[in-house]
Amino acid sequence: MQASLLYRNTMREETAFKLEESKKAAEDLVLRNIRCPSCGFHLLNVYGKGHYLLQIKCQKCKFSDVIDTALFRTVRGINKRKTEWTR
Question: What confidence score (pLDDT) does residue 59 get?
Fold first, then answer.
């Protein structure tokens, strides 16, 4: 709560309103980590499962390109399932 009060003191009222609305919208969505396709370094966090096209640049390996965040979803436990299927 303290952080939002600080934002209101340094931002215009319209900008602070947009920030609060964005936070409310993100509360119901799933948080996902997007990693660099080249080296696996953490790039950003994305809320939701929709298609968002982003121009990114990796700070570690300098990979720079446009990515579709919906295509870079992480399926947890897939390695465990793959070993079960091969048995």
Answer: 92
> Domain limits at 49?
2-74
pTM: 0.60
Task: Answer yes or no: is 7 within a domain.
Answer: yes
| 86 assigned to some structural domain | no
What are the angstrom distances between the C-alpha of 21 and each of 25, 27, 31? 6, 10, 17
Report how many domains make up the chain.
1
8 Å CB contact between 45 and 31:
yes
Instruction: Give CA–CA dist 75/47, Å, rounded.
Output: 16
pLDDT confidence bin for 51, thresholds 50/70/90: confident
